[in-house]
Amino acid sequence: MKVSDIMSDQVICISDGASLKDAHHLMQTRGVRHLPVISEIDGTLVGVLTHKKMIASVMSMLNKYGQGALDRKERYTPIDTVMDKDCQHLTADEPLTVVVEYFIENKLGCLPVVDADKKVLGIVTSSDFIKLCRTLLQQKN
Length: 141
Hints:
This protein has 141 residues and is an alpha+beta fold. 46% of the residues lie in helices and 17% in strands. It has helices spanning 3-6, 20-30, 51-65, 67-75, 96-106, 126-140, and strands spanning 14-15, 34-38, 45-50, 110-114, 120-125. The strands form 2 sheets. A 3-stranded mixed sheet has the order 1-2-3. Strands 4-5 form a two-stranded antiparallel ribbon. Helix 2 crosses helix 3 (51-65) and helix 3 (51-65) packs across helix 4. The radius of gyration is 16 Å and the shape is globular.
C-alpha cells in the first residue's frame, strides 16, 4: 500500500501570511487539527501548524497578557512565527510500511503529501492509520 491509498486529499491549508487568529478560527470551524502552511507567493508547502502548537501559543499569550489582550495578540501574531518550518513531508507513492515507522519513531500526528513542486496534494494523519487498521481488522473477520 502507498500513501495515496490512505491520504486525505481534501486537505485544508492556510497561507503563510495568515495570523494565529485565522488559524485558530479555521481549526475550530473546519474541525481540523493540522494545517499545512503554504506560501502566498508560489503555493508551495512552507510549514505545518498543529492544534497542539496553536493551543500552546494561545495559552502562553493568555498567561502572559491576560484574557483582555488575547484576541488582539492572536490577530497580530503571524502564523509563520508559530508554525513548524522544519516539517517533514511525503510523496503520494511512498510505501506505508516506511511511513508508519516514521510516525511511530517521531511521534507525529500528521505529514503533508506534496508533489515534485512541493504543492500540497493531501495529508496523512494518525487518524488515517487508525481507519486503515479498522478496515484491515474488519476484513479479517
